[in-house]
Amino acid sequence: MKPERVARIREVLDRRQPDLTIITDRVSKPHNISAIIRSCDAFAVPECHVVWPDEDFQTYRRRAAGSQHWVRVNKHPSTAEGIAHLKERGFRILAAHLSASAQPYDQLDFTQPTAFLMGAELEGVSNEAAELADGHVIVPMQGMVESLNVSVVAALLLSEACRQRRQAGFFDQPRLADADYQRLFFEACYP
Amino acid sequence: MKPERVARIREVLDRRQPDLTIITDRVSKPHNISAIIRSCDAFAVPECHVVWPDEDFQTYRRRAAGSQHWVRVNKHPSTAEGIAHLKERGFRILAAHLSASAQPYDQLDFTQPTAFLMGAELEGVSNEAAELADGHVIVPMQGMVESLNVSVVAALLLSEACRQRRQAGFFDQPRLADADYQRLFFEACYP
Ligand SMILES: C[S@@+](CC[C@H](N)C(=O)[O-])C[C@H]1O[C@@H](n2cnc3c(N)ncnc32)[C@H](O)[C@@H]1O
Ligand SMILES: C[S@@+](CC[C@H](N)C(=O)[O-])C[C@H]1O[C@@H](n2cnc3c(N)ncnc32)[C@H](O)[C@@H]1O
């Protein structure tokens, strides 16, 4: 492997944010999942979460077309289990959900450990998830249409989180735990 | 029509930004076009542009599933014609293009009349468009993957443009020309 490639991998790992993630609540269209995983990679998220009750996750996964190569995708069989897993790991869960209590995304602090929960294309965020979440967040809209595309919202949230974290110096030194850094470095060098 | 509905339509029209738009350069997947049109609506863009050489635009359009109801979609048969049309109307064309001369999107002024040109899913921005554009803009990425989804980038650019325009007071009073305002109001009330 060329030294430039190794340097690039290190640069990427040096910026990864282990305490920033996305969890999708039955988002079902592969192009949306794929776009979300690409955005995770671009916005320094090393690992994301997918709630997908169907057994047939392999097919689902394959259709996401390699975009998950640089982002680990964890599958959870139910919303409750996915959220419990993240809470145990210390994440605050913010559901992207157009509810009365939702706060605009540029008025919340995303430098805390944050998992954004994204709702399904048709059904939106499930009642269960809306209740289990620690809070609700919205991207304010100026138009007539009721909602944005789910992958678009995920990217807007992650990009705001990165903006805040850059300002707070989170990109100035590696934040991955040593063991995770070494494992990811090895996986990237010997795929 | 209920008074609340009329008030809502007026509120939306009061914020529309006639000098902010998107032009897609052969973007071909309906879910991407559809997501882009939804973002235009949400980020106050009254009218967008699509370069699509194929004759069969009706099918293409139908598949965008009603999201174009609140945003006029103008079709252009070639990139050159689309860009010429926008330049004639006073737009500065910024191609979302990962070139050496591209500038980060949060360091450019989007309060000027601005059209963001978006490249195709596989081919990216055509050479022709890259040359005809007044400048190139990028969304900086922190990861390994080479690019973001095209509808994700369009939304990030429009949301930054709205942020700047809100700060500059562009949402404080109507900006549509009177005749356009009346026409859009009529169309919205009697669809
Ligand atoms: C297409 S929307 C679902 C719309 C669904 N009909 C509803 O009422 O919730 C899919 C998901 O995208 C996210 N979303 C869309 N627009 C949003 C916005 N403006 N703010 C926050 N989240 C949004 C939410 O997570 C939502 O569940
Ligand atoms: C999937 S990308 C095209 C990738 C193509 N292989 C290329 O090399 O250009 C589709 C379009 O999304 C936009 N895009 C994607 N990521 C971008 C980024 N980080 N900054 C600016 N534009 C981007 C560009 O308009 C691009 O043409």
UniProtKB/TrEMBL annotation, chains A, B:
Q: A GO BP term, please?
A: tRNA guanine ribose methylation
Alphabetically, the GO molecular function entries are:
tRNA (guanine(18)-2'-O)-methyltransferase activity; tRNA binding
Q: Which reaction does it catalyse?
A: guanosine(18) in tRNA + S-adenosyl-L-methionine = 2'-O-methylguanosine(18) in tRNA + S-adenosyl-L-homocysteine + H(+)
**What enzyme class is recorded for this protein?**
transferase
Query: What's its EC?
Result: 2.1.1.34
Any idea where the tRNA/rRNA methyltransferase SpoU type domain is? 20-158
Q: Which residues form a coiled coil?
A: none
Name the keywords, alphabetized. Answer: Methyltransferase, RNA-binding, S-adenosyl-L-methionine, Transferase, tRNA processing, tRNA-binding
User: Which residues are listed for S-adenosyl-L-methionine binding in this entry?
Assistant: V139, L148
Q: Which domain of life is it from?
A: Bacteria
What is known about what this protein does? Catalyzes the 2'-O methylation of guanosine at position 18 in tRNA.
What family does the entry list? Belongs to the class IV-like SAM-binding methyltransferase superfamily. RNA methyltransferase TrmH family.
Protein name in UniProt: tRNA (guanosine(18)-2'-O)-methyltransferase
Gene name per UniProt: trmH
